[in-house]
Specification:
The chain contains twelve helices and six strands. By secondary structure, it is α+β, with helices and mostly antiparallel strands. It has two domains: 165 residues, 3-Layer(aba) Sandwich (NADH Oxidase), CATH 3.40.109.10; 64 residues, no CATH class. Strands 1-4-6-5 form a four-stranded antiparallel β-sheet, with helices on both faces. A two-stranded parallel ribbon has the order 2-3. It is globular. Bound molecules: flavin mononucleotide.
Length: 254
């Protein structure tokens, strides 16, 4: 597969995975791709923790569940999210950004038939935090945490502050290196037909990142950056949208 095909075919995989484990040869290829990413001063600030053991997966799944329940109580979080939610494919294709609600939440009837009906309710979602306090987050929390638990492999992506490059911008440069490393991994996964999903819920809040670190005995110089769940995809996901180049590319001057 050539590079541009892998770039176009890479999609976030939100469905279930085949139950078979990722073979070592494929894991080695993902690691090799990550290894050769660029980083400032070649500091290579990353660590990858590959998790396939059920005990750790269960603990991370439990943390994910709790984090989502808490997020649904947080008015600001709900408001921030609602800006980027698209309620129908038509709206999504028109805006060419944001996420399609039905890809992320199974809506109860009658909203499942026409998700645009929840748009007026969710457009200012902050006031719905009272539902979160009534544990409304439990339904998506159960669903997503089960996906985490049932994934053949989780990859915890960690940044090691001991490998900080020199200069005032050190931390920012490290983050750029981390992004490049993750993209190498994602594109290689796409090439190998391995599905990947970012699971950001247990990464959002500092206390959850700390708990995650504890579960896996993370050294104190390290910071949790991201959690990926990976597996062989049951079905190929094709849908996504992007801005037109005319909306983000300028020539010579802004
Ligand atoms: C830093 C980061 C965090 C993300 N967090 C999540 C997440 O928690 N759950 C999820 O389903 N997708 C997550 N995504 C995936 C994006 O939603 C996705 O890349 C975007 O909607 C474009 O879709 P595509 O990847 O299928 O092209 C994340 C992506 C990035 C880069």
């Amino acid at each position: 597969m050539d590079l541009l095909t892998a770039i176009h075919q890479r999609r976030s995989h939100r469905g279930d995975f085949e139950s078979k484990p990722i073979c070592q040869e494929h894991l080695d290829q993902l690691i090799e791709a990550a290894r050769w990413a660029p980083s400032p001063f070649n500091v290579q600030p990353w660590k990858l923790l590959i998790i396939s053991d059920s005990e750790s997966k269960n603990a991370i799944s439990d943390l994910t569940e709790l984090a989502i329940i808490e997020q649904f109580k947080d008015a600001r979080f709900l408001d921030d999210n609602s800006r980027w939610i698209r309620f129908s494919e038509e709206e999504w294709m028109g805006e060419r950004d944001g996420i399609l609600l039905s890809d992320h939440l199974k809506l109860p009837p009658p909203f499942d038939r026409d998700p645009t009906k929840v748009k007026p309710i969710l457009k200012n979602a902050g006031f719905l935090s009272f539902l979160g306090h009534l544990k409304a987050g439990k339904i998506p929390a159960k669903e997503i945490s089960a996906q985490v638990r049932n994934s053949p492999v989780l990859i915890l992506i960690v940044m090691d502050h001991q490998r900080r490059p020199p200069g005032g911008g050190g931390q920012r440069w490290m983050w750029l290196g981390m992004g490049a490393m993750i993209q190498n991994l994602l594109l290689t996964a796409a090439m190998l037909e391995i599905g990947v999903q970012f699971v950001s819920a247990p990464i959002e809040r500092a206390e959850d990142r700390k708990s995650l670190g504890k579960v896996v005995n993370m050294p104190s110089s390290c910071e949790v950056i991201s959690l990926l769940r990976i597996g062989y995809a049951k079905q190929v996901v094709q849908k996504s949208v992007r801005l037109d180049p005319s909306e983000f590319v300028c020539y010579e001057s802004f």
